[in-house]
């Protein structure tokens, strides 16, 4: 009978430890993974360059305020090309 009591006691201790572990394991705050967010960030949105018509991630684009509107460019060269076209149209 002594062996059965020891076995039951070990099983109860193991069950108690398991329940304590599960209790604390579930209480951890769930942190969403960066790639699984449903919110759209600036880097996720593609904007079109008005000069070369290339799509660029908004967070990486070169910006220009023009006539109250924000324009997005793939490179400083495209932004300069856009500005030079605008100046030549105003003169002509």
> Total helix count?
2
Whole-number total of structural domains: 2
Q: What is the C-alpha radius of gyration, as a whole number of Å?
A: 31 Å
Quick one: how many beta strands? 4
pLDDT averaged residue by residue:
82
> How helical, in percent, are the residues?
40-55%
Spatial sequence of strands, sheet with the most strands: 1-2
Q: Looking at the chains present, what oligomeric state does this protein adopt?
A: single chain
Structural class by secondary-structure content:
alpha+beta
- Secondary-structure element order, as H and E? HEEEEH
Largest sheet: 2 strands, antiparallel
Assign the CATH topology of the largest domain: Ribosomal Protein L24e, Chain: T
The CATH architecture classification of the largest domain is Roll
Alpha-carbon distance between the two ends? 107 Å
Low-pLDDT parts are none
CATH class of the largest domain: Mainly Beta
| Proportion of beta-strand residues | 15-25%
Task: Describe the 3D structure.
Helices cover 45% and strands 17% of the residues. It is α+β, with helices and mostly antiparallel strands. The longest helix is centred in the first third of the chain and has 25 residues, at 2-26. It folds into two domains: 2-28; 44-91, Ribosomal Protein L24e, Chain: T, CATH 2.30.170. It contains two helices and four strands, in the order αββββα. The protein has a two-stranded antiparallel ribbon with strand order 1-2. A two-stranded antiparallel ribbon has the order 3-4.
């Amino acid at each position: 009978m002594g062996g059965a009591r020891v076995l039951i006691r070990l099983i109860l201790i193991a069950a108690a430890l398991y329940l304590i572990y599960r209790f604390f394991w579930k209480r951890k705050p769930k942190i969403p993974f960066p790639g699984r967010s449903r919110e759209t960030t600036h880097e996720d949105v593609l904007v079109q360059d008005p000069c070369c018509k290339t799509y660029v991630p908004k967070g990486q684009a070169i910006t220009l305020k023009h006539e109250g509107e924000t324009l997005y460019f793939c490179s400083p060269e495209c932004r300069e090309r856009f500005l030079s076209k605008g100046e030549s149209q105003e003169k002509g």
